[in-house]
Amino acid sequence: MGSFLSCCSKKKVEDGANMGGGGSSSWRIFTYKELHAATNGFSEDNKLGEGGFGSVYWGKTTDGLQIAVKKLKAMNSKAEMEFAVEVEVLGRVRHKNLLGLRGYCVGTDQRLIVYDYMPNLSLLSHLHGQFAGEVQLDWKRRMKIAIGSAEGLLYLHHEVTPHIIHRDIKASNVLLDSDFEPLVADFGFAKLIPEGVSHMTTRVKGTLGYLAPEYAMWGKVSESCDVYSFGILLLEILTGKKPIEKLPAGVKRTITEWAEPMIIQRRFKDLVDPKLRGNFDENQLKHAINVAALCVQNEPDRRPNMKEVVNMLKGYDPRGKIMPLRIESAKYKEELLTLDQTSDDDDGSGSPEDSEYGVFGAMEVQKIQDPYKRFGYNTAVTKYV
């Protein structure tokens, strides 16, 4: 990974290098001066969010491009590694459902990553955050987001070489463009898997509630861990429930524990996010719940791969048989649950390590002013429909 950064940070890279992702067709190296000007000197008024890594700022380049700039707070070895991993991975991927690299800046004591700005922020902001009350995510959009996110993961697991395990699939890391097309983001925890390697053992990263049991407890990571996380995300999209919620007396319950009895009793309508007011396709709902139930099985070998997940979400069962409507509740050790520091005001998930936010992470729970309004730009294209 160091070779990529050392090479690119020492020489000028031509604009148009064909390594962007998502809607981006190119990435380039920015100067600190350019990004300082674009963000109005990294003004507090431009700040979109803040987390353990540092801050994210809204900006506008001289050629009119609206960007999000992730500025790392501290250049310790951990931050340096996550920066290197993210730039390395973003430089490799190119898919309409992955947030690509717009550029980066490497200075003596500065590390910044530049992305396209996503006007509809994150999935989290619409399910649990500042836009939750507006119910912009109707059933059709939710299914579009589920399928698009799955297609982004399929690309990481099966189409790029070496294969990539994201390790932090969650609602705050699914960003939404002006058409509510999903883009999976934040590759700071990603693992590149050499050909022929089925799994690795590593230090646990990610967000409790989304973590596969074998990964949360033993650090065993594989593509199947992303499949599990996607299953939790899919349940979250369908139900509007957080992965872990607090009950009275401080008791914590996972989304699978909540859903399990209703799935067993086939009370599918009771699972649907009440904000949809009954406006959903019942057949699609049953099918999607089935897919989620397969993804969150405790045994990794029993989970489908992402190719199968995408096919099933699109209505095709590659296994050629009726899938059992059943779910297994993840059982985290008590010591892990005690590390989950959720509150009624946060995103409903905690990290087994330091709190880590997504690219636009803290925005979902901050009542920030829309940058389009703040800076006087036309919102006709992106205003919520």
Automatic annotation (TrEMBL):
Q: Where is the Protein kinase domain?
A: 42-320
Q: Which residues bind ATP?
A: 71
One Pfam family here: PK_Tyr_Ser-Thr
Q: Which UniProt keywords apply?
A: ATP-binding, Kinase, Nucleotide-binding, Serine/threonine-protein kinase, Transferase
User: What Gene3D superfamilies does the annotation carry?
Assistant: Phosphorylase Kinase, domain 1, Transferase(Phosphotransferase) domain 1
Q: Which GO terms describe its molecular function?
A: ATP binding; protein kinase activity; protein serine/threonine kinase activity
In the record, the note on similarity to other proteins reads:
Belongs to the protein kinase superfamily.
What protein is this chain from? Protein kinase domain-containing protein
Q: Which organism is it from?
A: Manihot esculenta
